[in-house]
Design brief:
Number of helices: 5
Strand order of the largest sheet: 1-2-3-4-5
Number of strands: 5
Strand content: 5-15%
Length: about 210
């Protein structure tokens, strides 16, 4: 996609200059070079927004999901960024957590699972990105904040549960929405993901924060 966006303007420019009798400028694109990766156009399912969709009929729900995620149709979103519910206030409401209490897991409650499943039905190649806005209180018991091992376990458990119980692969994982992060914890998070077989899950840091 990025290649198409870059090449097409170059071709148009070359055609325009050729018509005007000017020399054509050659643009070389090295697709193997390191740099930012364009994964596609996406949307965010967070802040309890999808809760409103539940009140619609199944037929209308299907229309909305089709409009958003069917490839080559309407919005045709390629990335879905979902809130990892933490039972806390996240802008416009509260989202359920996969682990509201320590070692007490729930892979059914809440609606982000439903949103991801419906989106993936329409586009199996959809990129899933998880990001927490809040955390359950128990994750702060040891240090008084979320910079601790409990938080890392909580995040990795979510990625692991998505794959194990819901057959959903998480491509990107953020640490905390609009919050700073600590390098040593992120290195440990990377190791934990790798150890559990999530080598392909990339980390996003400083999401709207310093």
């Amino acid at each position: 996609m990025l290649l198409q966006l870059l090449v097409l303007p170059s071709l148009l420019l070359a055609a325009a200059t050729a018509v005007q009798g000017q020399s054509v400028q050659q643009v070389n694109i090295n697709t193997a070079a390191l740099g930012p990766v364009f994964d596609g156009v996406g949307g965010i399912s967070g802040g309890t927004g999808p809760r409103l969709l539940i009140d619609y009929s199944s037929e209308l729900q299907g229309y909305v999901f089709d409009y958003l995620f069917l490839p080559g149709f309407a919005a045709s979103l390629q990335v879905l960024k979902v809130e990892i519910g933490g039972t806390g206030q996240s802008t416009t409401g509260t989202e359920s957590s996969h682990q509201p209490f320590r070692n007490k897991f729930d892979w059914q409650h809440g609606y982000q699972w439903w949103v991801m499943r419906e989106a993936l039905k329409r586009n199996p190649d959809l990129i899933i990105y998880g990001l927490p806005w809040t955390f359950p209180g128990w994750t702060e018991e040891t240090t008084g904040d979320n910079f601790n091992q409990d938080t890392l376990n909580y995040l990795v458990d979510w990625v692991d549960g998505c794959r194990r119980y819901l057959n959903i692969t998480v491509s990107y994982l953020g640490f905390h929405n609009e919050r700073y992060w600590k390098a040593d914890l992120i290195v440990q998070l990377r190791r934990m993901l790798d150890d559990r077989g999530h080598v392909g899950t990339r980390l996003v840091l400083g999401d709207s924060g310093p």
